[in-house]
Design goal:
The protein is of the alpha+beta class. The protein has one domain. Strands 1-2 form a two-stranded antiparallel sheet. The chain starts with a helix and ends with a helix.
């Protein structure tokens, strides 16, 4: 069974992302407008990643309508 290049890149990216998450487990303080709360970086990193993908998807979807 041989992996296609796309699958290899996807697996390698996933492994690197997991390593990044496991090395960043400490709590950070997040300040946003009037709110301040602590959150573990292991939760914050995927949350910001999903937020970025969502914004990119919406901007890309709207730019195709032009």
């Amino acid at each position: 069974m041989s992996l296609r290049p796309k699958q290899t890149v996807f697996i390698a990216s996933g492994i690197l992302f997991l390593i990044l998450l496991l090395q960043n487990t400490h709590v950070v303080m997040l300040h946003f407008l009037f709110w301040e709360f602590g959150m573990s970086q292991i939760i914050l990193i995927p949350l910001i990643l999903l937020l970025g993908f969502g914004i990119g998807f919406l901007v890309g979807k709207n730019s195709q309508d032009w």
